[in-house]
Amino acid sequence: MLFDTDIIIWVQRGNIKAARMVEKENERFISIQTFMELLQGARNQLHHKVIKEFIYDFGISVLPLTENIGHRALVYVEEYSMSSNMRAGDAIIAATAVENNVTLVSSNAKHFKPIKELSLKVFKP
To answer: What's the pTM?
Structure first.
């Protein structure tokens, strides 16, 4: 299961439903894009450390940006940026899920709905 940035934020804010969902998965992934977004949102160096420890403690693997993911993300931006306002970050996250053949969990369903080949699980906090 690949967790979108919003899911990790829900867990860090203390949402029990989100935390249980993450805990019950045997294979936990985030994309490098999500990892960067989490670090970018940090308030200071201590918060950076907390984020890194959280990812490690939950046993979450960070999936890298590969050439295939980059190419697929570009296609998604070309196909969906005008009709669905697909942004680069979301395209990278979706492409990471598709290329690694894992389901993406997000509470931002509208960002990912247009992508037919994406297995999407919608989280409702």
So the answer is: 0.94
Token pair for 58: 């939950």
Which uninterrupted H or E stretch holds 62?
strand 60-63
Q: Domain residue spans in the chain?
A: 2-122
Angle between helices 32-40 and 45-57 (to 10 degrees): 150
Fold designation for 2-122 = Rossmann fold (3.40.50)
Task: Report how far residue 12's alpha carbon sits from residue 106's, in angstroms, rounded to the nearest whole number.
Answer: 15
Q: What average pLDDT score do residues 59-86 get?
A: 95
Give the residue among 96, 82, 91, 98 at the shortest CA–CA distance from 112: 91
Rounded to whole angstroms, the Cα distance separating 77 from 106 reads: 18
Q: Which amino acid is at 84?
A: S
- 16-35 pLDDT per residue, tens: 999 999 999 999 999 999 99
Half-sphere exposure of 15 (CA within 13 A, CB side): 16
**Does 111 have pLDDT greater than 90?**
no
Place of tokens 């994406």: 118
